[in-house]
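Hi C.,

You asked whether I'd gotten around to modeling the 429-residue construct. I have! Everything is below, sequence then structure, no commentary in between.
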Amino acid sequence: MSLSQTFFRLPFQPAALSRLLVRPVQIMIAIGIGLAAAALFAQMEGERGVPPIASGGDFEVRGVKVDVQAKDADSARYAGWRMAQRQAWRMLWSRTHGSGASGGGAPALSDSQLEAMISGIEIEYEQAGPNRYVATLGILFDRARTGQLLGVSGNVMRSPPLLVIPVLWDGGSAVSYERTNEWQKAWARYRTGDSAIDYVRVAGSIADPILLNAGQTGRRGRLWWRVLLDQYGAADVVIPIARLDRAYPGGPVTGTFTARYGPDNSLIGSFSLRASNDSGIAQMLDEGARRIDALYIRALNDGRLRPDPSLIIEEPVDPDALAIENAAEAPIEAIDLPIQASSTTSVAIQFDTPDVSSVGAGESTVRGIPGVRSAATSSLALGGTSVMQVSFEGTVEMLRNALQARGYSVAMSGNMLRITRRQAPPPSQ
């Protein structure tokens, strides 16, 4: 009997043998697909989700350096933290009252009183030895407990809710929420409570990587933007962009930061920062987020940062049709009566506020002008330029002339006035 005849007499023919081998292969493929899907899901949940933190409106004092020696490491750390609290309180007082870096004039508070006002301590840099503690700390003061003692008042103007899509260019490719990156982490840990911009920050998990990606920032169609913004409860979008350029591997890194706004990707401003190596990228990105927030606040005060009307879904109400409808429902006697309508103008006034007393003095001066119904500070910036919202019965030119008559130099741009005190002429010799 030949070998071929012996083969064909086997109990399993080739077709039957192939059918038996298909089922184990299918089972192994299904198990492999399931394991890959589970690994991908775990990777998405574990790496993409960066929940926003630090959204409170506490007063923050950063860069407090201490160097303390004690009998042991715990005593040195405790003494260093108490010393940092005292230094931070003087620094916060000088920042809000303009009393110099030494903090002269700050009320003397005990350590227990300071601990009751402090909501947290952030360790920026720390080295602990057997009997020495060297650190750079950030101190957070509770706004409700500290604001009254500081004497800081005034209403802070807030922007409409703006969705944040941070875009990072690194290595020639752009990424937003598609994967976790340092620029996304920087915006997640940035303290937005004290900002005039109402940021809407997302964690970057579940559907966020699909909806909020780098390609979305290049779309101009309003229909998809309306659906997207309505999904996140925002009125418009801000796009902070960071581009990292490395001189050579492991060498200096240059970061170019750009603040953009709206579906049309309008430019607000840009600047550059530099890190000595890769280890300083996180600190550079934190500083970039802080400066971009300052650009957005400045644009809000200048009137450049305003919601796009094309993103509003609701149809606007026609005032003429509303007036006709009200007239049809009103009595005949009411229609025949003459109505005197007063012309009230809303004006924004920028004025210098070097300290707390200058805020009240500026408001009192404007309120004393005839025709001013109300004057209140809407954006407070101690040590800089604040914005006052004024309701005036008359035109902007009339208000400008009244301010000039009270010794102010006035620059006008639309309904925005910038006032400064005129310098007195030098005495004649």
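If it helps when you're writing up: Residues 97 and 355 are 5 Å apart (CA to CA).

Thanks,
B.
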